Amino acid sequence: MTNVILCGGSGTRLWPISRTLMPKQFVKLFENKSLFQLTVERNSNVCDKQLIVSNAEQYFLALDQLEEIGQHNNSYILEPIGRNTAPAIALACMALAPEELVLVSPSDHLIKNETEYKKALQRAQKLAEEDHLVTFGITPHFAETGFGYIEADGENVKAFHEKPDLDTATDYLEAGNYYWNSGMFMFKAGVFLEELEKHSPDIFKASLKAYKNADKKDLVRIKLEDMLAIPENSIDYAVMEKSGNVKVVASDIGWSDLGSFDSLYEELPKDKHGNTLNPNLVSIDSKNNLIYGNERKIATIDIEDTIVVDTGDALLISKKGSSQKVKKVVEEIRKDSELHHIHLTGHRPWGTYTILEEAEGYKIKRIVVKPGKRLSLQKHHHRNEHWIVISGTATVTIGEETKILRPNESTYIKMGEVHRLANDGIIPVVLIEVQVGEYTGEDDIIRIEDDFRRD
């Protein structure tokens, strides 16, 4: 069995923790592990291998986090742009043998009851081996308006329903044969593709063309023009709601999609006053609060049922029960800021950079390059750069000259000069970069040569 892990999505409902280049599935929220890592560990006990569908930026995050938990030799499909779940799953199934069993799982869900989870997988496997498309329906314990529902007659699916209002959700709960739509599935790769071709032939044909045209040297890289040609649609709309071959497995597995700070609050450990545990919190007569922040002290006085999220470059304060409105905040921020896109610390395949200070005409960064890695050979049109090595030994190429820089040594790169920074040593290189120029944006990078095949 192959676990197809879907890594798309930016998780904007958990902003400012989650951002486009560090979405919630890669944020380490639970005992220093991410939801992505927990997903891989959980499913590696029942699946022979993982096939990860991701975009290029998240691919490198996935590689790093898999290395941390000792998971290697996974397969990848890289999408240059997302087209929703139906094309992503189709591309994954095209990379597999038709008889291969496929467990499709989002990378950003929490499952706490692994015993019941394994039981649900065993039942789903039996149904999938009989050539059914299987979806997992989460047993509801309260009336939830934020999820779609599956109406069932035993294991037969009667209908899929959109997110209901509260009265309808209450009726669903009382009826006892309605389940939350989890977004998890199991089927044979070939069976899914047959149903996709039957019910959404436009998606099937465009996906097949994209897969055939893909670069498959070390992993599957879909070309942008081919990806754009695939109609955008979810697996529910494209296949599951149209097929007469769908079964549902009732699953009471301690599941949460962590789709809001209110749901995150329910899952995090708390102190005796109901505040989430945080070593940086000084709490005076405050209770039942979600307090998130690890960069500075957070003091609260006489507050209750509040969400406080501090990430260094952004601060969110909300009443509990209102955190679904965070999406509206992100819509406003997109108009004049990059705060929806990236944290102060950006993750790259070669390491990280952290913005220490930024103002008109200059930017100061702390750059960490992992052993054996190097930045692209590049140049800039609008800025000069000063590099000062703090620790490690840096190999610096400027024009035709290559030199070694050790701690407390520095160099200068003029605007327009071709240059590269590499770490040929066995410990990380840490340096301070000072950019000076009329424009210091991240898009002022002209890559001439790149080990990671980025555009």
UniProtKB/TrEMBL annotation:
The keyword Isomerase applies. SUPFAM superfamilies: Nucleotide-diphospho-sugar transferases, RmlC-like cupins. One of its GO terms (biological process) is polysaccharide biosynthetic process. Residues 280-332 form the MannoseP isomerase/GMP-like beta-helix domain. Keywords: GTP-binding, Isomerase, Nucleotide-binding, Nucleotidyltransferase, Transferase. Its EC number is 2.7.7.13. Residues 3-271 form the Nucleotidyl transferase domain. PANTHER family: MANNOSE-1-PHOSPHATE GUANYLYLTRANSFERASE. This is mannose-1-phosphate guanylyltransferase. It comes from Nitratifractor salsuginis (strain DSM 16511 / JCM 12458 / E9I37-1).
